[in-house]
């Protein structure tokens, strides 16, 4: 990982593509934690994943790395010396953080399956005003508060997954709330593993508490807004869709139903304000005084509740301004929001779709609703302050008016990088349901605070080609390393095939002009039929009493097929059913289909795995950009062949996509075709990468569309896949592709003994030491030759070189030595 170390040395950013299943996570943890050990002044590592299972896997890999480091350091101690403990022995504190639903241990709250319901019940038990009245409380939260009051460190050094923290929360010795403990332990942790949203989404962002050097959990948490770059490292794993995550985090949708609910929220807040005026008017007066002092002070009314209502990304100069006078009074602010809601209702009365910029909408708001554009910037923070003052625990009830506040806050803050779209028929099904969409077009807005705040940001994925596109669309500067690493295998474990036509020489493609062509659908069906009969799962079966012979167990194939969209999947399945393709496939194996329903898809996946485990075999039909394509692995016998029917382009007539393409063309000089090809190929690579999850795995990857043979598509396939693409496998007929797949899987099913020692694909510790010894001998011999021939010039050259870094001390772990 020389490229990553080069980026860390230069305090810059990097974009790295590493093949899936080759130890990417272990490599990142090994190098960065060793770099932290060698540079104590370095801050924490923030490791971002997409899902809870990925988070748990990452923490387990980190535990293996640190355990190995502690073991190596213990062996290097001098005989008779006292063994160090804690951080000196190589241990670190690392925690995983997820939502309340995944971490809660309260006997009643944890039974709820709905995320919003869990959040609501938790707030009702932990809100300061609820605890003061002593009407209800959470014993785990009370123990957490008690531990903080005693300046407790909560936990000793160690690696703690979400499940580990839950176990501690249910333990009588600890008993504190795992969720709040994890949020506080972030301050003392050297490594934090959490979801993307906690870093990118401003509504749930923890960016203010992730930077800086580790500090004791019992200390006071520091507020955000640091001006200098902090010496911490942020890693975004599986970052191939990070631009989409950034855009979604700053986009807001409103419809008539949500606006009607917002009006109800405002009525409820108005009544609550009148009640508080009569019972405790001092609360509103104190809030008014804080608002006069400025936005930053107003946002810190209650730290626990403020965590739940983080504001959208605001410029640094804005947070020091005072709240405008026309919204300081609670009743005045409610009246302003009511005018905004009524304006949005009138704005939605359209028969044709229209698109405008933020400045145009702000001008209409000023004219029609008499709303000053400056006041819009503070709406979210002002609403947060009001909800805290009114002591509202059930924040989910006020989600509609919060969305309206988000909408106008972003509208008033940014004049570029956003567009407003009104679509009277958003679902294209002939149903009139006008939707008001504030769409973020510039992904760099959400990630910009992260790039400015932290010393190094690393984007990595197995399918992140082409690498040069990401720094451009994310506004990443100081990019030191952009590298796509290949994969070393002892035998050819991948067989990518590009199928361009059927046996009848008719081109196959999912392009719109050929989508309804019966011959294309027939060729796709013929390809699937032949694959289910040909793809074997090779096994070496030793026979009792005989020498190990060659045996091929031709069980039914385990294939995964991806379509470009749900609509295209339905169209093809309908034609296949009419022509008998489905019935012929079902004679050989079971058929499972992904749907838009998450529960039904999860159930189908479980049945698919059971069919594969039983030896019956199955085919899973899925959709690119769906749940299966992004987060489900088909390793080993669960997926020996993956077929991608068509090129997964986005719907090019989408108004949101058209607006973003125009923005990219004007501001980044990215052509429409360039971005569409880039987006389609990263989705295609992600689908195909599902079948290979380790170095010992193998599988067939079939690109079933003639457009994949073109250089503009083929060049965007990740290098580690393209490396195995043979020239004769580029323009193939479907029958020849099936034959090539059968030959490949037949070859992979033969007995194979892995190499050991130097030259093996997977090195043992002993082989690694031999390899290092050979490398040091070779470098020493080269240095001796150079010194004998070029001694005077070399000596003069060394005088001009900058002083090299000091070698690592003897107590560095083996992984750190490898770096040096």
From TrEMBL:
It catalyses: ATP + H2O = ADP + phosphate + H(+). It comes from Durusdinium trenchii. It comes from the Eukaryota. This is DNA 5'-3' helicase. Its main location: nucleus. InterPro entries: ATP-dep_Helicase_C, DinG/Rad3-like, DNA/RNA_helicase_DEAH_CS, HBB, Helic_SF1/SF2_ATP-bd_DinG/Rad3, Helicase-like_DEXD_c2, P-loop_NTPase, RAD3-like_helicase_DEAD. Residues 1-288 form the Helicase ATP-binding domain. Pfam families: DEAD_2 (PF06733), HBB (PF06777), Helicase_C_2 (PF13307). SUPFAM superfamilies: P-loop containing nucleoside triphosphate hydrolases. Residues 800-820 are annotated as: Disordered. Belongs to the helicase family. RAD3/XPD subfamily. The keyword DNA damage applies. Residues 809-820 have a biased composition (Polar residues). Its EC number is 5.6.2.3. The keyword Nucleotide-binding applies. CDD domains: SF2_C_XPD. Coiled coil: none annotated. It is found in: Nucleus. Keywords: 4Fe-4S, ATP-binding, DNA damage, DNA repair, DNA-binding, Helicase, Hydrolase, Iron, Iron-sulfur, Isomerase, Metal-binding, Nucleotide-binding, Nucleus. Its cofactor is [4Fe-4S] cluster. Gene3D superfamilies: 1.10.275.30, P-loop containing nucleotide triphosphate hydrolases.
């Amino acid at each position: 990982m020389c490229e990553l170390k080069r980026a860390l040395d230069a305090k810059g950013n990097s974009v790295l593509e590493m093949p899936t299943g080759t130890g990417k996570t272990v490599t990142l943890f090994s190098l960065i934690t060793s770099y932290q050990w060698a540079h104590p002044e370095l801050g924490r590592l923030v490791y971002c994943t997409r899902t809870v299972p990925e988070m748990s896997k990452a923490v387990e890999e980190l535990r293996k790395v640190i355990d190995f480091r502690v073991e190596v350091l213990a062996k290097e101690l001098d005989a008779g010396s006292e063994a160090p403990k804690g951080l000196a022995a190589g241990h670190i504190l690392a925690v995983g953080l997820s939502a309340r639903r995944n971490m809660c241990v309260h006997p009643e709250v944890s039974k709820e399956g709905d995320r919003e319901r869990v959040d609501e019940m938790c707030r009702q038990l932990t809100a300061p005003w609820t605890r003061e009245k002593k009407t209800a409380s959470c014993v785990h939260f009370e123990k957490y508060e008690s531990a903080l009051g005693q300046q407790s460190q909560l936990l000793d050094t160690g690696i703690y997954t979400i499940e580990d923290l839950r176990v501690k929360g249910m333990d009588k010795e600890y008993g504190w709330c795992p969720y709040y403990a994890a949020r506080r332990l972030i301050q003392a942790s050297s490594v934090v593993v959490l979801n993307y949203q906690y870093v990118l989404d401003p509504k749930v962002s923890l960016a203010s508490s992730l930077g800086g050097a580790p500090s004791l959990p019992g200390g006071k948490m520091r507020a955000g807004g640091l001006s200098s770059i902090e010496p911490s490292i942020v890693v975004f794993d599986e970052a191939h869709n990070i631009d989409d995550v950034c855009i979604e985090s700053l986009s807001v949708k409103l419809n008539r139903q949500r606006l009607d609910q917002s009006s109800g929220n405002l009525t409820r807040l108005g009544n609550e304000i009148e009640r508080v005026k009569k019972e405790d008017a001092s609360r509103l007066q104190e809030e008014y005084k804080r608002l006069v002092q400025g936005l930053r002070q107003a946002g810190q009314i209650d730290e626990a509740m403020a965590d739940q209502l983080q504001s959208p990304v605001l410029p640094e100069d804005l947070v020091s301004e005072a709240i405008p006078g026309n919204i300081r009074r609670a009743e005045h602010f409610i009246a302003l929001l009511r005018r905004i809601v009524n304006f949005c209702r009138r704005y939605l009365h359209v028969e044709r779709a229209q698109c405008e910029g933020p400045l145009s909408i702000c001008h209409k708001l000023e004219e029609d609703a008499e709303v000053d554009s400056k006041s819009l910037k503070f709406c979210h923070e002002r609403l947060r302050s009001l909800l805290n003052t009114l002591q509202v625990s059930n924040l989910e009830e006020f989600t509609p008016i919060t969305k309206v506040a988000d909408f106008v806050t972003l509208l008033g803050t940014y004049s570029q990088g956003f567009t407003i779209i009104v679509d009277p028929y958003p679902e294209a099904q002939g149903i009139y349901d006008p939707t008001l969409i504030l769409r973020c077009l510039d992904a760099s807005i959400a990630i910009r605070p992260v790039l400015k705040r932290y010393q190094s940001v690393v984007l990595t994925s197995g399918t992140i080609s082409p690498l040069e596109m990401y720094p451009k669309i994310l506004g990443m500067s100081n990019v030191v390393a952009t590298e796509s690493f290949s994969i070393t295998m002892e035998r050819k474990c991948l067989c990518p095939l590009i199928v361009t036509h059927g046996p009848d020489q008719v081109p196959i493609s999912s392009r719109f002009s050929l989508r309804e062509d019966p011959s294309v659908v027939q060729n796709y069906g013929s390809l699937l039929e032949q694959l289910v009969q040909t793809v074997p799962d090779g096994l070496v079966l030793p026979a009792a009493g005989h020498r190990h012979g060659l045996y091929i167990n031709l069980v039914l194939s385990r294939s995964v097929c991806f379509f470009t969209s749900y609509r295209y999947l339905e169209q093809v399945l309908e034609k296949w059913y009419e022509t008998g393709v489905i019935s012929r496939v079902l004679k050989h194996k079971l058929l499972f289909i992904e749907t838009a329903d998450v529960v039904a898809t999860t159930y189908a996946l479980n049945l698919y795995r059971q069919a594969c485990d039983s030896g019956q075999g199955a085919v899973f039909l899925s959709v690119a950009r769906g749940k299966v394509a992004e987060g489900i692995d088909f390793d080993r016998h669960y997926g020996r062949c993956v077929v991608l029917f068509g090129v997964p382009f986005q719907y090019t007539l989408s108004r949101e996509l058209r607006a973003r393409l125009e923005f990219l063309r004007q501001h980044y000089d990215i052509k429409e075709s360039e971005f569409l090809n880039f987006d389609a190929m990263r989705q295609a690579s992600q689908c195909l990468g599902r079948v290979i999850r380790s170095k010992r795995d193998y599988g067939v990857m079939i690109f079933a569309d003639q457009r994949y043979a073109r250089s503009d598509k083929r060049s965007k396939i990740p290098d580690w896949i393209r490396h195995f693409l043979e020239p004769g496998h580029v323009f193939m007929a479907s029958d020849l592709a099936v034959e090539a797949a059968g030959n490949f899987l037949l070859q992979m099913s033969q007995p194979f003994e892995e190499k050991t020692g130097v030259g093996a694909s997977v090195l043992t510790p002993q082989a690694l030491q031999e390899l290092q010894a050979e490398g040091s001998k070779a470098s020493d011999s080269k240095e001796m030759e150079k010194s004998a021939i070029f001694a005077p010039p070399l000596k003069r050259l060394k005088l001009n070189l900058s002083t090299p870094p000091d070698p690592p001390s003897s107590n560095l772990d083996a992984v750190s030595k490898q770096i040096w």
